């Protein structure tokens, strides 16, 4: 009795598609074997009988094998009613499963299985712009979007894998395959106050770094007060979007003639021309002004020097270049 209960339990856990496929396969083989036994002259081999059975079940009916005896024809009628019914149910089940998987993918319920991808957390105008720009510049980049407010991924973003849920939860991050991601971008939520939004970004950073300490993590913050906490949480780069926007607005107010220049510099096509390059050995010991003609003739314009954590923009002409310095440049558009 206990063995029968165990078998029933195991059978109940078998997926419906597997049950249907097994039923169709078994009924076809059984019917083919029986017709071979009943009419060996018409069905010379076991395979001929099985072939006829599956052709009949699939409603193709080539007509290359036709039963003649009454018994075999009754078996054919039974096979048509039972086998075709199971086959139809199998096909519709496959179609239903495909539709369900597609719907689950759009609604963020399917796990991502790739690697080397970029995870973008938060659905807002900044993340939309980031996704669009990345896809334009590098179309083959794999992107996973995590958001809990979005009900369904818009049709315009078909190449993006969507995961719906709270980005600070381990299960949601695992669904996005955080362990094999290359970069994580955490955008700030504008719902609620700035402190709450930044606190959630820091919490998400902790969850990300707990599962993949080596992933490069960029965090958008609304206040500079939380930069220290985000850095402690493991953020590799913190961007204070409020201060950045405020600086641009202030510059436009105080220096209105420079507004168009700033706007052009902040367009991605021109921002991508900004580079940080290592100092060549022959430049070490020279003054910054002596680099201008040499670098400009090479197709790029030096803006400043990166020395450790310091960014020296437009330094004094007599600044001496050191071995560990890096050169901040604007590369030529014709590079």
UniProtKB/TrEMBL annotation:
SUPFAM superfamilies reported in the protein's UniProt record: NAD(P)-binding Rossmann-fold domains, TrkA C-terminal domain-like, Voltage-gated potassium channels
GO cellular component: plasma membrane
Presence of the UniProt keyword Plastid in the record: no
Domain of life: Bacteria
Native organism taxonomy: Bacteria, Bacillati, Bacillota, Bacilli, Bacillales
Regions crossing the membrane: 16-38, 50-67, 74-97
Gene3D superfamilies, alphabetized: 1.10.287.70, NAD(P)-binding Rossmann-like Domain, Regulator of K+ conductance, C-terminal domain
Pfam family, one: TrkA_N
UniProt-listed InterPro entries: K_chnl_dom, NAD(P)-bd_dom_sf, RCK_C, RCK_C_sf, RCK_N, Trk_Ktr_HKT_K-transport
UniProt GO molecular function: monoatomic cation transmembrane transporter activity
Membrane topology note: Multi-pass membrane protein
Protein name: Voltage-gated potassium channel Kch
Keywords: Ion channel, Ion transport, Membrane, Transmembrane, Transmembrane helix, Transport
One annotated GO biological process: potassium ion transport
Subcellular location, record wording: Cell membrane
Residue ranges occupied by any RCK N-terminal domain in the UniProt entry: 115-241
The keyword Transport is assigned to this record: yes
Occurrences of domain RCK C-terminal (ranges): 259-335
